[in-house]
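Hmm, what's this shape?
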Amino acid sequence: MPATPLAQPPNRRLLKGVAAATLVLAAATPVTLAHAGGATPSGSVSPTAVAPGGRVSLNVTGCGTKTGTASSSAFGDVQLTPGNLEATNLFGNATVSTNAAAGTYTVTFKCGGSGGQNATASLQVTSGAARGGLGGSVGAMSPGQIALGGTLAAGALGAGIWVLRRRSRLT
């Protein structure tokens, strides 16, 4: 039985021409297309709520510049640095003043360069420090709960020793 002809291999010259045209178009396209349309910057603060003396991360996207600042009466002025080579985002860290009063503070992000644009975000300063340890999910324990936990732990330890000793006798 004669073999059916397979599809003809694509013309290599045509493929090379298409690849070259694609590279030329990609090189001619600006990297910062998002900024060409006059995109407005957007700023964020993380975490959004912090106690006095706590640290926050600051991030602004859409500046299109490699310099910028973030400022607030909660922490002062902070220089922002580019997060990548294209400077699509700027970031920094700040420590909230230990004498900052509880309340909501505005964080103003200013993009560097001529005609620098601004963005704002909110930061909530809480009163007092956050509860540590178990994340504040457990309040106080009663003596009965402590006794029950201790009894369960001792029972588990005793059962483990009994199993290990029994195994050693069987072998």
